[in-house]
Amino acid sequence: MNNKKTYYVTTPIYYPSGNPHIGTAYTTIIAWTLRNYKNLMGYDSKMATGTDEHGQKIQEKAKKQGISPQEYVDKMNIIYKNLWKDLEIDFDFYSRTTNKNHINAVKEQFSELLKNGNIYKDKYEGLYSISDEEFFTQKQAEKRENGKFYHPVSGHELVEVSEESYFLKNSKFSKWLNEYIFNNESFISNKKVLNELYKNFLEPGLKDLSITRTSFDWGIKTNEYDSHVIYVWLDALNNYITALGYKSNDDKNFKKYWENGDEIVHIVGKEITRFHCLYWPIILKASNIKQPTKILAHGWLITPEGKMSKSKGNVIDPHDLIQKYGVEETKYFFASLLPFGKDGIFSDEIMKNKLNSELSNNYGNLLSRTLAMVNQNFDEFVVYKKSNEKIDIEIEKNIIKYTNKYIQNFDQNKLDVAFNEIFKLGKKMNSYIDESKPWTLKKNKIRLEQILNRLINGVYAMTTMLSVVMPNKMKIAKEQLGIKELKIELINDFDKFNNIKVKRGEPLFKRIK
Ligand code: ME8
Question: How many angstroms separate the CA atoms of 374 and 382, rounded?
Fold first, then answer.
């Protein structure tokens, strides 16, 4: 079908300067879940992720290991891809900034910017964080008692840089950017992020951005000047379009999902909003390319020692969680854990309690209880009939109400609230069972049939809503329900189980001790 609306969602491309961890996994799981949700809602939805393989930090890492940067990134790339495989994240596009197509496109873009007078040569003198690959003025940096300067957020030490550099004329676009950001309220997901960017960068006046480096060479060389490699962020941001084939022989995906696409969403951690909300729109504008729809900034997973990060070494390997809790349970946990934009502490205790109360006690229990009652009392199927019983009307309304709330919240990227609506429905269904007491109705098959049919319909709604994050588990549930498809538009069609035999199976979610 060609007339579906499109949705293109991306993760940041990760620096392979260390192993991926649950922070990295968190972002990727969110992007993947959103991609799946949009597909459920009838969109043609695609997701991209990848690795950011150039820059001084990577070059230094490789040197420490005594291998070439290319060997280093090749080796690390396998580790990242394996994690996505183990997490069963089936992305649609994968960027490596060392890919030929990407390199050529970035070189060509640089040449065009140069030709159009958006780039000029000067000297960069200032502070630089190698870990964050980010420039600072002394005013923006944090000066400590030892007289040294530090990154105001990550705390990494900054080094003095003085080298010849090409600059992007941000000043030429800053008026446009200000207007763009403030006229498109939904562009930056979070008011707090917007205010901070305004206070720190826009209000004092956006400085031109140094976009080439000459003191190392692990990067994309410009066509024009061999000694200049393109700044790693200008290189990396372009992955979002080169992943789709921008400036390649095959750019049909770029045309479809970007140029003519409906929704384009970048998911990023809050520490890299400066690049995505200020520089990326300017690069696109200066290159005459359409803007993305939204920059969705999320918070951090933290440990008692602060933000979990590769450079701090306080990371948790997602493999440990997959092994302990199961792959889809791990994905569910992270997709539903945090209010978007807020930081959250990870702990085993929180994970165990959440999975037990929501997946095992609430959903899993309802599924197996409902199917068991049907199998015990009916050889064939249970048929839907309209009912005037107040509690029947109420539970039907609730199935629709909580589905709508799930949709409303997902559409606002409030994944934690959206998932919670599913379990609110589960609670309503448990009360429906308590009130209607099906176990007392063995002799009243007509009434029992009406109650059980409504329960199956409710379980179907929950299963469909959960399928965006646990597709394989929900496939098993779907088989137990005996139904062909999990579709959002079938939720309010209460007749759908009229000829369908359900079959109770093994419990889907065992209680974790
Ligand atoms: O910044 N909690 O790469 P990166 C939540 N290459 N999310 C976390 C996290 C945590 N503790 N730690 C990392 C880069 N992340 C650049 C991006 S894009 C054009 C270039 C996630 O390896 C979060 O999404 O440092 C964060 O923004 C991203 O990983 C940073 O990954």
Answer: 8
